[in-house]
Amino acid sequence: LLEAEPESGLLFKEFQKPPMRSYVDDEIENSLRFIPEAMKFENIAQYKEFLANNLPYNSISTRRRRSIFILSRYFSSNEIVNPLTFFSIYCSHEELKSALFYETVKIEPLVEKFANEFIWPALPIGYVEREEMRKFVLQWLPDLGEASLHKVLRSLFNVYTLLSVGSEKNDFLNIQIHKGSLGSFLYVLTAEFPQPGVYSFESLNNGPMRHWLLWDKEWMRQQLYNLQDFGILAKVSEIDTVKQFTLQFGQMEALKYYFKHPERGKLTIRDHDA
Fold it and tell me: What is the pTM of this model?
């Protein structure tokens, strides 16, 4: 059964982020559409020009400005070939949504605050109200004008609903524990633990997979065994109170190994049975 509410526990590691800023012009739909196009280009400059020419806005100045949002959020390394762009050309549309959600929360300080301090505590209730969202945003950005506040709230709704982490009805954002997919699990796992090594279940269960993506804990446990079947995890160990897993690869190597595995379609039984 899926869990109904979160447990208390240690907070996951902090990411280095810029100071608090508003989150407007989310560009979620365009990111889903155009990020899989990125690896067709030799460098960021070419891709930036492609976005400026193809984003669905009438004004060239708007297209150029909106392209910067996409580049700054998902191409901070200034490299065309990165784990997200590689993942985007092999994964399903739903898997890309999970990866994009993770990367958005990771890079946008306000969205991370919203996920950790507003959505996660509200999970037992199962929804949050727009007015309460408004109050939360103003706690962190008290000088935000009404027009900008409206854009921030719309962007917060979009990042959850368009990326399938929540659903919207009237002025409510509905949230619940749910399952993901093995591919998206692998992407976030190897982003959180980018180096080969031994990691605890606790670090997994108290991290972004639960607190941001709201993935079911038992489902996540079963995906560890799936990845052990692939050989991406050398070992999954649950002995008394010692529960840990051993990751064999860094992120890019793990993604390449997974998507190019000749038996990938046969090694996801737990993903369907979870």
Answer: 0.90
